[in-house]
Design goal:
- The strands form 2 sheets. A 7-stranded parallel β-sheet has the order 3-2-1-4-5-6-12, with helices on both faces. Strands 8-9-7-10-11 form a 5-stranded mixed β-sheet.
- β5, α4 and β6 form a beta-alpha-beta unit.
- The protein folds into 2 domains: 148 residues, NAD(P)-binding Rossmann-like Domain (Rossmann fold, 3-Layer(aba) Sandwich); 76 residues, Dihydrodipicolinate Reductase, domain 2.
- The protein is built from 9 helices and 12 strands.
- By secondary structure, it is α/β, with parallel strands linked by helices.
- The protein binds NADPH dihydro-nicotinamide-adenine-dinucleotide phosphate and ligand LZUJQKHR.
- NADPH dihydro-nicotinamide-adenine-dinucleotide phosphate binds next to α1 and α3.
- It catalyses: (S)-2,3,4,5-tetrahydrodipicolinate + NAD(+) + H2O = (2S,4S)-4-hydroxy-2,3,4,5-tetrahydrodipicolinate + NADH + H(+); (S)-2,3,4,5-tetrahydrodipicolinate + NADP(+) + H2O = (2S,4S)-4-hydroxy-2,3,4,5-tetrahydrodipicolinate + NADPH + H(+).
- It is found in: Cytoplasm.
- This is 4-hydroxy-tetrahydrodipicolinate reductase.
- It comes from Sulfuriferula nivalis.
């Protein structure tokens, strides 16, 4: 089929990488153009998936040349290396990786001057709707409600709190006119004293194969509002990443997130 989007997947042997390949191979408007793993990975040279004929490679430059988009769910240092090359070669990038520092996030935003970038800690439609619901809830429950963010993920996750939980905290803090970096409390232990009402608390659970659960609690006196999202399949993230690739194919250069892709901005 002509004009299919030529997609390269980074971290192609990883949990998200494998689901992304399945999503690309099932999408009639996309083709798997390449599959990357880091230098030294035992997966280099192996098939990216059964039957698609693409072998995993560590040759970033050759693989990215001629591609429409790179989808990257890896680790911050890998993503930043991929980003630099995409910028050089004029290839759009969709970044799902979490765990970046503020300075690294700025590097990602800067790349939007030259290429299309979608960067989002969670690509599911449901979570991005939840961000909007949180904004409304925070504006209504703006006094007398203690805000706690609770997240649970599988045993292999390496960063905490999750990128989604942090973004949820930012959305709520912004709606309340607070700065998350000044009011976040990450976990509690020992004699902590009474809760400071201006804080936003975070709690992290890790275990088994939990795909990704997030709850934001607005706890008042006499009532409690909880807004929860539960992901039960990584395919929801992969489908969001493909929507982002389609969005970038017509958007031109710029730094975007899933609110732009899903038309939820504003
Ligand atoms: N935005 C979203 O919607 C979602 C985001 N995520 C995020 O995506 C990321 C990946 O998650 P997941 O797939 O579970 O993790 P995995 O560990 O299963 O996969 C990561 C892949 O990236 C590779 N990788 C690691 N470091 C580098 C590097 N420096 N250069 C190139 N490749 C590298 C790994 O290779 P190796 O095994 O050799 O280290 C592995 O193949 C995480 O940050 C996670 O939080 C996850 C789900 C949804
Ligand atoms: O590592 C994961 O698995 C996930 N990471 C993302 C995050 O850190 O928010 C998104 C999703 O919850 C799954």
């Amino acid at each position: 089929m002509p004009n299919r989007l030529r997609i390269v997947i980074a971290g192609s042997a990883g949990r998200m990488g494998q689901v992304l390949i399945e999503a690309v191979n099932s999408a009639p408007d996309c083709v798997l153009y390449g599959a990357l793993e880091r230098v030294g990975s035992p997966n280099v040279g192996r098939p990216a998936a059964l039957m698609d004929g693409v072998l995993i490679t560590d040759d970033m430059a050759t693989t990215l040349r001629g591609a429409d988009a790179l989808i990257d769910f890896t680790r911050p240092e890998g993503t930043l290396a991929h980003l630099a090359l995409c910028r050089e070669l004029g290839v759009n990038i969709i970044i799902g990786t979490t765990g970046f520092s503020a300075e690294q996030k700025q590097q990602i935003a800067d790349a939007g001057k030259d290429i299309g970038v979608v960067f989002a800690p969670n690509m599911s439609v449901g979570v991005n709707l939840t961000f909007k619901l949180l904004e409304i809830a925070a504006k209504v429950l703006n006094e007398g409600y203690d805000i706690e963010v609770v997240e649970a993920h599988h045993r292999h996750k390496v960063d905490a709190p999750s990128g989604t939980a942090l973004r949820m905290g930012e959305v709520v803090a912004e709606a309340l006119g607070r700065d998350l970096s000044e009011c976040a409390v990450y976990g509690r232990e020992g004699v902590t004293g009474e809760r400071d009402p201006s804080t936003i608390g975070f709690a992290t659970v890790r275990g088994g194969d939990i795909v990704g659960d997030h709850t934001v609690m607005f706890a008042g006196i006499g009532e409690r509002v909880e807004i929860t999202h539960k992901a039960s399949s990584r395919m929801t993230f992969a489908q969001g990443a493909l929507r982002a690739a389609r969005y970038l194919s017509t958007s031109g250069a710029g730094a975007f997130d899933m609110q732009d892709v899903l038309g939820l901005r504003g």
